[in-house]
Amino acid sequence: MSFIFDNKKNKKKCQIFTPQSMVDTMLDLAGYTTNLLGRRVLENSFGTGNILKAIVIRYIDSCLNDNIPFEIISENLGKDIYGIELDNELFYKCKEELNAIVAYYKLPPVEWSLYNDNALTWETDLSFDLIIGNPPYITYKEIDEDSKKQIKESFVTCSVGKFDYCYAFIEAGIQLLSTSGKLVQLVPSNIYKNVFANKLRHALKEHISTILDYPSQQIFQGVLTSTSIFLYDRTNQKEYICYRNETEQTELLIQRKQLNGKWMFSNSIIRDTNTIRFGDVFNASIVIATLLNEAFIVTKDKISEKAIEKSILRKAVSPRSLRYNREEYIIFPYKYDDNTLVHINSNTFKDDFPGAAKHLEEYIVKLDKRKKDKNVQWFEYGRTQALAHLNQRKLLISTVVTNKVDIYELDRDTIPYSGIYITEKSGSSFTLKNARFILESPEFMEYVKKVGISVSGQSLRITCKDINNFEFKGGS
C-alpha cells in the first residue's frame, strides 16, 4: 500500500504541520501532563513529527520534575513512546529531530521504538494507554484501487461506501487501546455528519467523551476543511458527552443516546408533538442527473449553430446560473402525458429531432461510458428518478448554504440540473409559499448549522434527507 503516496497530492496532505497550539490542546485533553513514566503512547502517523516531539519533550520534563535519573529516562523513552510513519523521508527527518531533543537535554542516546511502516498493516501484541494523532485526510477518490480493497476488507468503518482514509486510522487506534486507554485525534469535522462515516460514528459512540469543534476556522494553512478534536476514553461511561464549539466559545452536554445518524450537537433534539416533518408535507428531491452536462446543456449560440430544434428544448437552471443571470437551455428528450413521463424511442428521436440527435452523437463515446441507470437509451439522461415529479411548479435551493438559504421559484417547464428542488406533496394542504416561509426561517438556518457538513468558511452542505427531516411548528 505504499503506493498511496505515488499520488503527490496525497503525499503533500500528509506533510501538513500540526500547529503547536493544537498539539498542546490534544495533549492536555488526553491528560498527558505529569507522571508520564510508564504510560505507553503511540502516534500512528507522525508525519513531520510535531505531535511526537511535543510528547517527548513533555515526557522528559515530567521525568526531570520527578527526579528520575537520566539513564532511566532514556531507557524508558524507547519503551513508552512509539511512532509509525510510512513516508521514508519524513520518518528519518523526525528521528533526527528527536535525537536533537535528547541531546539538548544531555540525555544518553535513545533506542527509539519508531517504525517506518504502514500503520494500517502494522502488527503488534502491545496495547497503548494513549494514542494521539492527526491522521492523513485522503478522500476516497484519491485512494488507489488496491488500497481501497485492502482497507475495505480490514476495517469495518470503511466496509461500506466512499470512506476517508482517516477512518481506518481511527479504527486502528481503537483496536490498539488498552482497557483504560484514550484516543485523541485531530480530524475533519465532517466525520460527525458524512453519510459514509456512519459506521465510524457507531464505533465511537459508546466511549467518546469530548468533542472540540472549530467551525469556520482555518486551522491548517491553505486547507479549508473544518477541524475537530475528539477524546475517546474507554473508561468513560457517562450519559452525556461534552461538545465545545471553540469558535463561538460555547459548550453543551449532549445525551449520548441522541447521537444517531448524523450527529447534531444541540440539546433541543427532543420531538415536539406539535411539530411537522417537512418531508411529510413536501418533497425535497435531488435534481436531474444527465451525467454529461456538456452534451445536454446548451446556450443560444449553440442552439443556432447546431440547428437544435426548439421543441425539444427547455429552460435549464442551477442556483449558480440563476445567481448570475446566465441563460441556458437543456435538451429534454422526453414528453409528459398528464404528468406521466413518456420515453421516446431512438428512431423517433432521430426522425423528429435530427439537429438534437446530430449534436448528441458528437458525444456518443462519453454518453455510452456513463454509469447510467438500467435501460437508459444513449440520448437520455443518466439518471431518470427526478424526472417523474419535475413537471410542476417548484422551488430550487443550492446544496451549499452560506449565511442564508437562497430560494428560486421555477415554473413547471424549467429543468433544474443542480441543487435540490422542492414540490408540493399530493394531498397536502401546504403550498410552495409555505415551503418558502419555512426554508427562509431562522429556525431552519439554525438547523442547517447543526446538520450541515462544512465545506469552506461559512458554507455548509446539506442533503435532501436533511431538508425532509426538518421539523417545524404547525401553522407555518
UniProtKB/TrEMBL annotation:
<keyword id="KW-0238">DNA-binding</keyword>
<protein>
    <recommendedName>
        <fullName>site-specific DNA-methyltransferase (adenine-specific)</fullName>
        <ecNumber>2.1.1.72</ecNumber>
    </recommendedName>
</protein>
<feature type="domain" description="Type II methyltransferase M.TaqI-like">
    <location>
        <begin position="104"/>
        <end position="220"/>
    </location>
</feature>
<keyword id="KW-0680">Restriction system</keyword>
<dbReference type="Pfam" id="PF07669">
    <property type="entry name" value="Eco57I"/>
</dbReference>
<dbReference type="InterPro" id="IPR050953">
    <property type="entry name" value="N4_N6_ade-DNA_methylase"/>
</dbReference>
<keyword id="KW-0808">Transferase</keyword>
<dbReference type="GO" id="GO:0032259">
    <property type="term" value="P:methylation"/>
</dbReference>
<dbReference type="InterPro" id="IPR029063">
    <property type="entry name" value="SAM-dependent_MTases_sf"/>
</dbReference>
<dbReference type="InterPro" id="IPR002052">
    <property type="entry name" value="DNA_methylase_N6_adenine_CS"/>
</dbReference>
<keyword id="KW-0489">Methyltransferase</keyword>
<keyword id="KW-0949">S-adenosyl-L-methionine</keyword>
<dbReference type="GO" id="GO:0008168">
    <property type="term" value="F:methyltransferase activity"/>
</dbReference>
<dbReference type="InterPro" id="IPR011639">
    <property type="entry name" value="MethylTrfase_TaqI-like_dom"/>
</dbReference>
